[in-house]
Amino acid sequence: MAQFIDDVHANLQRLDGAAVLDILIIASIIYVLLMALRGTTAMTLLRGGFAFICLLFLLGRVLQLSVVNFLIRNSLPGLVLGLIVIFQPEIRRALERAGRTSIRSLLSNTELSASVDAIATAVIELSRHRHGAIIVVERSTGLEDYIESGVRIDAALTAQLMEGIFYPNSALHDKAVIVRDQRIAAANCTLPLSEGPGSARLGTRHRAAIGITERTDAISVVVSEESGAISVATDGRLIRLREDARVRPTLEALIAGASIAQPSVLAS
């Protein structure tokens, strides 16, 4: 252990400007990759693997296990290549998001306003006809895992299209629609069910709407098939919107990243 501390101290003394820049670049790359994995099942796998490797490293150093230390030293290149192969979809998605961000940041609020109007108009109309629906809006956390579970559409976001998707006789009316970058990415998507306190007395549609917001920073809008009630889920909370006039401003605030100071409401 003392030898390890001496090695760390010696390495710190050799730090110069180039070494610091090198560390910052690598740290930035790791940060971007972690942000791409956040909220996906791959993140759980990464945490488990990292904890296992750290445990082996500490045991090898503290107990002076020569074979373990040898394996850790010589398996690093293979581990890096393995991570690239395992997390190839997430790495690709991070690069795609970086490209989208550079473009979307130049867009005006007009497109965002049009998207909110389309979603609000659709859910209000669906509520009047008591057609059940779940619409999930992607924010910073990628929802590719859930998009792949449904049918890809990649169509313009319009109220008429969403109303058609959730029409009871439609082949895609079941499960959820996911919206990404002001477009309908996919329909008939499977969402995780919430297992939080009080969720057991909710219907499957509302549990799914809450569940996706417990695992990601997405926003979901749910319309009850039984009562036509409109609710918005965010951060694991379900907020009942008792007036149609509240739908648009609530969605606009949440998609823009604001928080809604209102206690959670369990809707049936």
Mean pLDDT comes to 79
Which CATH architecture of the largest domain is right?
A: 3-Layer(aba) Sandwich
Strand percentage, roughly? 5-15%
CATH structural fold name of the largest domain: YojJ-like (1
- Outline type: elongated
Q: What share of residues is helical?
A: 40-55%
Number of helices: 10
Work out the number of β strands: 7
Explain how this protein is built.
- By secondary structure, the chain is an alpha+beta fold.
- The protein folds into two domains: 2-101, no CATH class; 107-255, YojJ-like (1 (3-Layer(aba) Sandwich), CATH 3.40.1700.10.
- The chain is 54% helix and 14% strand.
- It contains ten helices and seven strands.
- Helix 2 (17-37) crosses helix 5, helix 6 (109-129) runs parallel beside helix 8 (159-165) and helix 6 (109-129) crosses helix 10 (247-255).
- It starts with a helix and ends in a 13-residue tail after the last helix.
Task: List the topology elements.
Layout: H1 2-13, H2 17-37, H3 41-62, H4 66-86, H5 88-104, H6 109-129, E1 133-137, H7 144-147, E2 151-156, H8 159-165, E3 176-180, E4 183-189, H9 204-215, E5 219-223, E6 230-234, E7 237-241, H10 247-255
Parallel strand pairs: 1-3
Antiparallel strand pairs: 1-5, 2-4, 3-4, 5-6, 6-7
Helix pairs in contact: 2-5, 3-4, 6-8, 6-10
Quick description:
This protein is an alpha+beta fold and 268 residues long.
Offer a few descriptive terms.
single chain, 268 residues, alpha+beta, YojJ-like (1, 2 domains, disordered C terminus
